[in-house]
Specification:
With 298 residues, the chain is of the alpha/beta class. 26% of the residues lie in helices and 29% in strands. Strand 11 and strand 12 form a beta hairpin.
Length: 298
């Protein structure tokens, strides 16, 4: 699968036509996967997915970026498992927000789109005036049935709310994969090292959704090798309290230098909420109890 960058002043026409999946695809959850799978199976042309460089809401409120479930790189990694030819990234700006529905249709025509795969509620154009009925005037449209879990539509917003509640197991079920945060290992306060419990401090690659502050059972991938571990998400209130959340991962029996490495952390299960302890000894004892819950001996 080839990644292609698109801009308003740079629209690449695909000579042999495209069967395209339309949506933002944050999280690439089970509903998104259903659209991609149908395109992979039924598309008669080169198959593509169209996503955007960032959430549209970032341009509406410039002082606060929207949290996301996946970065562009994450989405590429997930959708590369499907039978797609192109991963199209439309780089949006304020001008893009003012495009009419007809303007967006013109962009699709410029790409030489022949078939569209989308959900029934897909909207596009300024004030979301474009819909499936409009798409059908210009393209062959495959409307993919809404994916339901317990008679409820799976949505990115619902998954975000589950993560904010610490319900990662349910969030993972709706995602169809484990929730991941990717980032770079950076130097921290080295408090864990002082107490014999080293942690990797992970600086987020993007503005990820931060789960409920607490301790989690995780898998951390270092050089594509998985390690079962325990992670704390929060401001570690007992020692050197932070003013914004950080992700710290402890990998038992691991002592390699991984500073500067890009890693990704998969959240498997919630263990407990973050809390302030009266002493470091009490904190260390609790960490050892946490480790026993993931069947690892510290």
């Amino acid at each position: 699968m080839k990644a292609v960058d698109l801009y308003l002043n740079k629209i690449e026409s695909f000579e042999n036509g495209l069967s395209i999946c339309l949506g933002y695809f944050d999280g690439v959850h089970l509903g998104h996967k259903k659209i991609i799978e149908e395109c992979s199976e039924l598309g008669k042309y080169k198959k593509a997915i169209l996503t955007f460089s960032e959430p549209v809401s970032n341009f509406i409120n410039i002082h606060k970026s929207k949290e996301v479930l996946t970065s562009l790189t994450d989405r590429f990694r997930i959708v590369s498992r499907f039978n797609l030819d192109y991963y199209l990234i439309f780089h949006i700006n304020k001008e893009f927000l003012n495009l009419s529905a007809d303007d967006f249709i013109a962009i699709l025509k410029g790409l030489n789109v022949k078939e569209v795969f989308c959900g029934l509620d897909y909207r596009f154009g300024k004030d979301a005036t474009g819909n499936v009925s409009l798409l059908k005037k210009y393209f062959t449209v495959y409307v993919v049935d809404t994916y339901l879990e317990n008679n409820k539509k799976v949505s990115s917003q619902d998954i975000i709310e589950l993560l904010k509640e610490g319900n990662v197991k349910e969030a993972n079920r709706f995602l169809g994969q484990n929730y991941q945060i990717c980032g770079t290992v950076i130097s921290g306060h080295h408090n864990g090292e002082k107490f014999g419990i080293r942690t990797a401090n992970v600086k987020f690659d993007t503005n990820y959704v931060v789960p409920l502050y607490g301790v989690y059972k995780v898998i951390i991938y270092i050089d594509n090798i998985p390690y079962l571990a325990i992670a704390n998400v929060g401001v570690h209130p007992t020692i050197d309290k932070e003013n914004k959340p950080i992700l710290e991962v402890h990998i038992p029996s691991f002592d390699k230098d991984i500073y500067g490495k890009n890693v990704y952390v998969e959240f498997l299960d919630f263990i407990r909420e973050e809390r302030k302890f009266d002493s470091t000894d009490e904190l260390i004892d609790q960490i050892k109890r946490d480790l026993s819950k993931i069947k690892i001996i510290c």
